[in-house]
Write a structure and sequence with these properties.
The protein is α+β, with helices and mostly antiparallel strands. The chain has a domain of about 130 residues. The protein has five helices and eight strands, in the order H-H-H-H-E-E-E-E-H-E-E-E-E. Strand 6 and strand 7 form a beta hairpin.
């Protein structure tokens, strides 16, 4: 008597053949998950992004603004110094008209607005102005300082006008940074006066703007060029 194969068995075999992957190792391959590629340990970090046109333009604008402020301040200071020159000469010519020809015929001249303080034996002074070369019309911006001792009392603001009869005297005044001892002793009591100079090629005039001071002299003052102007 023959054994019968159950009808369901061939059907199950056919279904398994259709579902399972074919070929050797197919089952193992299908069961192995795909691995992500390993990261490259030698990769270089990306550079930081370059500044945007907007940020670069803002930086340039800020720099230009700062430069403009400095130029404006310099121009304002120059204008103030030139006004000192004009006012000082106007006062000098008003009190001593004969001096105008000497100033115009000289190699050059300097005008400074000076404030001086005298307290018993202490002397403090500061000033600013310009030096003008009559031949070239070149303007040099100057300052003056004096801190020392000497008899005197009071506070006074004056114009100091230097008249350089020779170019060598004017050049020495600028290049040496000051004449100091060239200004001799002169006693004044808040009035217009001419100061005596030990250099025969320099005449020095003092015109009081305000205040009252009894002083023994202006010797020892240092006059220097304002290079920033």
């Amino acid at each position: 008597m023959k054994r019968r194969i159950p009808f369901a068995l061939p059907v199950i075999v056919v279904l398994l053949a259709l579902v399972l992957p074919r070929g050797p190792g197919a089952i193992a391959q299908s069961a192995t998950p795909a691995l992500a590629p390993a990261a490259d340990s030698t990769s270089v970090a990306e550079p930081a992004p370059a500044p945007t046109p907007t940020s670069a333009a803002s930086a340039v604008a800020a720099s230009d603004s700062t430069s403009a402020i400095k130029v404006a301040e310099r121009d304002a200071e120059r204008a103030e110094r030139l006004a000192i020159r004009d006012n000082g000469l106007a006062m000098l010519y008003k009190t001593q008209p004969e001096v105008q020809k000497a100033v115009e015929a000289a190699a050059g001249y300097a005008v400074l607005d000076v404030t001086a303080v005298y307290i018993i034996l202490f002397v403090g002074q500061s000033g600013k102005g310009v030096l003008v070369d009559n031949a070239s019309k070149k303007v040099t911006y100057m300052s003056s300082k004096r801190v020392g001792t000497g008899p005197g009392a009071g506070k006074q603001r004056v114009f100091q006008i230097f008249v350089f009869k020779e170019k060598s005297a004017m050049d020495t005044f600028v290049l040496s940074g000051g004449v100091g001892g060239d200004i001799g002793v002169a006693a004044t009591m808040g009035s217009h006066t001419m100061l005596r100079s030990f250099n025969k090629n320099i005449d020095i005039y003092q015109i009081a703007e305000s205040g009252f001071a009894l002083q023994a002299g202006w010797g020892g003052t240092v006059y220097s060029v304002d290079k920033d102007l």
